[in-house]
Automatic annotation (TrEMBL):
Signal peptide (residue range): 1-22
Organism: Triticum aestivum
PANTHER family: ANTIFUNGAL PROTEIN GINKBILOBIN-2-LIKE (PTHR32080), PLASMODESMATA-LOCATED PROTEIN 7 (PTHR32080:SF3)
Keywords: Cell junction, Cell membrane, Disulfide bond, Host-virus interaction, Membrane, Repeat, Signal, Transmembrane, Transmembrane helix, Transport
Transmembrane residue ranges: 255-273
Matches recorded under Pfam families: Stress-antifung
Membrane topology: Single-pass type I membrane protein
Name used for this protein in its record: Gnk2-homologous domain-containing protein
Keyword Zinc-finger in record: no
Gene Ontology terms: cellular component: plasma membrane; plasmodesma
Domain (Gnk2-homologous) ranges: 26-128, 132-232
């Protein structure tokens, strides 16, 4: 027996402000669940369980993986993407935390996705793997007020992300200009051009929407980008790899914005978790 619904869902939007929390690789950012649901005891339930289990088991070995369970009707696909500069232990913990969140937030949903601070997990039956998506899902600007000089450094740092070549197999980019740092991450199912296009779109959103804010982040369908000043905004925590650490802490929240539905097939929400 198949799931009750596949990829044709009515998008529903509900938004609560995201709590600015501690510097935590598994801190919640947003989630989305399909309107369609499936029945217990079906092939689709087995497919979802199989895909999510396989994703959890793959996390110690690679920052990205996608899995398909063809035995389910319709087939279930899933993927995860960690920030690819982080150690395998951090990726593993983040992915498993994301899957646990999906199990509670999207119970019995035919499709779902969750973005945590350092990883993204999605499953469903709507052929999303390999498809570019630059829809804005979540945007936030804040930090101590800056000035035109800071905005110029921000634009330069973000422009550098968009024009740089991502490391093979990673999609992670980091850089800076003056007193502003920036980073971005693409989902691993994008090719190099699609990743660059997504990062360019994310950078444009931050340049246009964050004014003189000293920190900001935007999550698109297949990538995200962040910037922060050295004197405020996103607080750097314990770092690894290239030395960058990131957290969701802001010195003053100015904007929390969701635009449109989640991908066009999932209901989008950003919830306050305590």
């Amino acid at each position: 027996m198949a799931a009750r619904a596949t990829a044709t869902f009515l998008p529903v939007l509900s938004l609560l402000l995201l709590r600015a929390g501690a510097d935590d690789n598994s801190a919640f950012v947003y989630a989305g669940c399909s309107q369609g649901r499936y029945d217990a005891g079906t092939q689709y339930e087995s497919g979802v369980d199989s895909v999510l289990t396989s994703l959890a088991n793959s996390a110690p070995y690679a920052p990205y993986a996608n899995i398909t369970s063809p035995s389910a009707l319709p087939p279930v696909a899933g993927l995860y993407q960690c920030r690819s500069d982080l150690p395998a232990s951090v990726c593993t913990g983040c992915v498993r935390s994301a899957i646990s969140r999906l199990s509670s937030l999207c119970s019995w949903s035919a499709g779902g996705a969750v973005q945590l601070r350092s990883c993204f997990v999605r499953y469903g039956n709507d052929s999303f793997v390999g498809k570019p998506n630059t829809a804005v899902l979540f945007k936030k600007c804040g930090g101590s007020p800056g000035d035109a000089g800071g905005a110029a450094m921000r634009d330069s740092a973000l422009g550098g992300l968009a024009s740089s070549v991502a490391p093979a197999g990673g999609g992670y980019r980091a850089g800076g200009a003056g007193g502003v740092q920036a980073m971005s991450q693409c989902v691993g199912d994008l090719d190099a051009k699609a990743c660059s296009d997504c990062v360019s779109a994310a950078a444009a959103q931050l340049k246009a929407g964050c004014g003189y804010a000293s920190a900001g982040e935007v999550y698109l369908g297949k990538c995200y980008a962040r910037f922060w000043s050295n004197g405020g905004g996103f607080v750097s925590g314990a770092s690894s790899g290239n030395g960058y650490g990131f957290g969701p802490r802001m010195n003053g929240e100015r904007l929390a914005l969701a635009v449109g539905g989640f991908f066009a097939s999932l209901a989008y929400f950003s919830v306050l978790l305590v």
